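Sample 3 of the quickstart, ligand NAP:
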Amino acid sequence: MINILFAATDSRWPEYAAPLRKALDALGLHYVLSRELAPEDVDYIVYAPNSDVQDFRPYTRLKAVLNLWAGVEKVTQNPTLTVPLARMVDDEGLTQGMVEYVTGHVLRHHLGMDAHIVNPGHDWPKLTPPLASERPVTILGLGTLGVACAKALRTLGFPVTGWSRSPKQVDGVRCLHGMDQLDKALETAQILVLLLPDTPATTDLLNAERLARLPKGAMIVNPGRGPLIDDAALVAALDGGQIAHATLDVFRIEPLPQDHPFWAHPKVTVTPHIASETRAPSAARVIAENIRRGEVGEPFLHLVDRTSGY
Ligand code: NAP
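Result:
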């Protein structure tokens, strides 16, 4: 019998219980799946970093922690976690949600939709936008989500540059990598999309100096993580006209504190960390497959490298 503890917030349990059971049953696994199990009996933890479980030491026979979120920065440094940690990848619902968020907000900025929708003067501004082919977009982060967004934007006709840590090849996308090529990736980015993880190497990546590398009037869409951007440098760049608009879904502190300057800034759009959610039916299949692998001794999928932090 495999004992699986569901350790996410209470509100997630009704959403996940049935899809997880369906996915585990489909693989023929014999298991107990529960919100409450004696720690010493638990084989796997289906986990969300905001769960009550923060000390993994009592889980003496634990084989793996299977994270429901794509982001793992709140758990990678936990010294009590010594078993493999897998994160959520290949949840097609999560990926599709991010593609829709990114293409939606890129198109909003590209087409200048606000100028047409919010038009209190009833004037008749002739603001014909360029075609997508004339609007270079750069995506920082060419992982599962970055690549899916790059392909979607490419299909719409945008010239897309992607940037990652290691070299990549994506059809139709100019792929750059490493710190040496970051400036090159920024220099053409009329719209910049951030899909990097939050790690020590990416903190404040978009600082004043790098914001100044972007073409004047560039627009930023950040559904990655808040600490990627130096908030004060961004506000200064918006005020000075270097950056025309920033659409931000993620923040250093969430919910974004009421007195944060982003709330009232006319050139900032705040969305409340809704760019993309793990979707229970597809995420359950990813979790079940990893439990099957753990049981037959196959390597886990989507393991987190604790050294790099993602
Ligand atoms: P992923 O597959 O791990 O991809 C991360 C990408 O970032 C990779 O291309 C990686 O390069 C690159 N990278 C990491 N550190 C780097 C560095 N120091 N320099 C240059 N490139 C670096 O992650 P994912 O699944 O695409 O997700 C990306 C992020 O989106 C997550 O970490 C999470 O923070 C965020 N997210 C947000 C939401 C939301 O609702 N707002 C939802 C889901 C995810 P390599 O390819 O060379 O490793």
